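Sanity check record (used in CI):
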Amino acid sequence: MEDWAEIRRLYRSEKLSQAEIARQLGLARNTVANAVRSDSPPRYERPPVTTSAWAQIEPAVRAVLKQYPTMAASVIAERVGWSGGHSWFSENVARIRPQYAPADPCDRLVHRPGEQVQCDLWFPGALVPDHAGVLRSFPVLVMVAAYSRFIAAVMVPSRVTGDLLAGMWQLLCGRIGAVPRTLLWDNESGIGQRGRLAEGVAGFCGVLGTRLVQARPYDPETKGLVERANGYLGTSFLPGRVFTSPADFNAQLTDWLTMKANMRRHGDPGGRARRGPGGDGGVAAGGPDDGHHLQHPTGPGLLRQPRWQRLLGASGGHRADDHRDRMPGPCGSCLW
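Expected output for Transposase:
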C-alpha cells in the first residue's frame, strides 16, 4: 500500500520516469508500471476454487450413505479413501446424511366409535372457595370421548375413590349419556396403582359393563387427548373468571363446554364435537332425566357415522342410566 502511494506521488508530482522510480525504491519495473496504471490500491484476492476436495469425493460418500445411511463418518472416510481432516469430513457427512435417513416408522391411531373415553384430573389452582370461604385447589375430573373429542368435566371434592367414581357416573350419565367400551386412566391413586384397581372401581366397571385400563407410569402420551383438553381448559376457560363456590365453577364450566368447547370443528374426525347424543350421531339417550331414547338420525346434517355403537340394539349396548339403581356406594349421591 505504501509503495503504491509513493510510486504514484513520484510519477505524478515529481515527474520522475518509471525507470528512475524503480531505481530509487528498489522495485521491479513491472511493479512500478502496474502501480502507475492502477487507479486503486492493490489487494490480495484468493483465486476461485473450481473443484474442492469435498466436491471430488462427495459422489462416493453419497453412494455409501444411500446403501448404509447410518454408517459412522469415520467408517465412510475409510471406504472412500479420505485422508484429510476428520472433523471437516464429519461435518459435511452430517450435513447430507438426513437426505438418506429412512422414514420414521409411525402408526396412525384411529379411535373407533364408542371405543374409549380418556379420563384425567385437572388442577386449576386455589381459585374456588370452600364452605368456610378459604380458597382451595379442588380437582376437576375431565373426560374426553376419543372419537368425537367431546369434553365433559366436573369439579369434585377430592381425589378419593368415592368422589372419582361419583364424578365419572355424573359425567357418563348426565353429559356424555353413554358408556364406552374402555375408560382410560393414568395411575391415579383413587383409581388404582401397581396393576391393582382401588376398592370399588371393579364393581363400578362391572355394573356399567365397561373396562378400565390404566396407562403405563410416566407415559402421558397414552392419553394425549385428555391431556390436551386439560391444557385447553387452562388457557381458554380459566383466565379472567371468578368463582364463588364449586357449584358456580361447575355451572360456568358446563356453560362454556356447551356453548364453546364442544362446538369446535375438529379436522381429524371431520366433524364437530357435541353432546353425546348429538355429536356421536346415534346413542340411546342423553342423561338420566331425559326419560326417552333418541332416534338414530340419518339426515344430511350428520358429519360422521354413529359413535356409540355399543349402545345400539344391534351392538348389545346400553344407556348409562340403565344402571342408576345398581350403582354401589357414593355413586348414587351428589358430589357436593
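The first helix runs from residue 2 to 12. If this sentence no longer matches the regenerated C-alpha cells, the check is flagged for review.
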